[in-house]
Each structure stands twice: as C-alpha cells, then as structure tokens.
Design brief:
The structure holds two protein chains of two kinds. Chain A is an all-beta fold. Chain A has no helices and eleven strands. Chain A is globular and about 40 Å long. In chain A, 36% of the residues are buried. In chain B, the strands form two sheets. In chain B, strands 2, 4, 5, 9, 10 and 11 form a six-stranded mixed beta sheet that branches. A five-stranded antiparallel beta sheet of chain B has the order 1-3-8-7-6, with no helix packed on it. Classes of the chains: A mainly beta, B mainly beta.
Amino acid sequence: DVKVTQSSRYLVKRTGEKVFLECVQDMDHENMFWYRQDPGLGLRLIYFSYDVKMKEKGDIPEGYSVSREKKERFSLILESASTNQTSMYLCASSLRAGLGKETQYFGPGTRLLVL
Amino acid sequence: TQLLEQSPQFLSIQEGENLTVYCNSSSVFSSLQWYRQEPGEGPVLLVTVVTGGEVKKLKRLTFQFGDARKDSSLHITAAQPGDTGLYLCAGRAGGTSYGKLTFGQGTILTVHP
C-alpha cells in the first residue's frame, strides 16, 4: 500500500514566521506535488517535483518555496507566513507520467492557521 | 491555464435517490480522473477514463468521458449515506505535463438516511 505522510495534521503559526511542511512517500515515486485546498476552489497546485532537486512552479507559487533533496521527501516552505496562507495543504505523489493513468496518492493534509 | 468547472457545488439528497455530478471544460484532456475525499483525509482515486465516450462502472457509480474529451459526469444510483463526501474531478493535459492534474472545485455530497 502506498503511504504518503505529512509531518503535522494541524499547525498554528504567527504572521511572519517561517513554516516548514514536510511530506514523505514510501513507494519510490518520481513525482511529488504540493496543493492547497480552499472551500469552493478545489485543489490548486503550488509546486511539483519530477525528480530529486528538480522543481517546477504550479499555478500559485507566490509566497512558497520547495525542497527535494531526497526522492522520498518533499518540503514546502512558507518564507514569511501571512494570514492569506491559512489553508489545508495536501501533498501527493505519483509515478512518472507516461501512460496517462497515473494515480496521485495523497497524504491526510496539514491544516495551517496563520494568526 | 486549463480550467475544469464542476457542478453542482453542493448536493443534499435522501438515501435511495439518484444524482449526477458534472465536470466541464473548454480544453481537451488526455485523461480524466474522479477522486473522493472524506473529512480529515486526502482524496482517493475512484476511476480514470482515457478514451472519448468511455463509460466505466464501479458498483452504483457510473463515470462517463465526453466524446470530445472535454467533459465528464459521475452518476450515482440509489445513493447511500456512505457515499457522503467531497467528489473531485481532475484532468490531465497531454504532452510533457509530468502527471500534473487540473482539479475542479469539487462537489460536496450529503446523503441523509
């Protein structure tokens, strides 16, 4: 069974703090993704990575950065948290695209509140 | 940027009723997936459709991919309280997209006993 774990289920931070969200997958997947989920907006892609040390911006990268030093681990960094970054953050992983049927496996999410 | 419009946003029905959720776009997708998410959990894949006109059935759930691969629908027959959850459609563009998906806004389904 694929397992994607996220470092925290709930997080409360102050405006201006640096925030690290960590994601680990155990299925040797090449692709990893960070999304934020807000009511009525679905899932929006922040960043994704298709290999170690490789990253590409998604649809809403502003205010975020990422790090992928090891294949199994993908970190999302909020350099200076702001209240509009209060959200549910979901990490996902998948095999390298090629067949058009790749499943994304999601972690349980981190609910971040920025005060 | 490709967009997927999902409707309705909310559905509240009684056990035993039928329902359909729609997912529409002006863009063509190489494949389309449906995910279901329960409170406190991440989305879980239900089905992937890849061929225009394709119909897939999963027990009481029927998924259809439009002929032009721009839209999809999810039909649930005789809904049960266990079907309650957030349903998300997600489309994958062709080419070197590294498996990126575009998600619809989601449909929150509540089935009352």
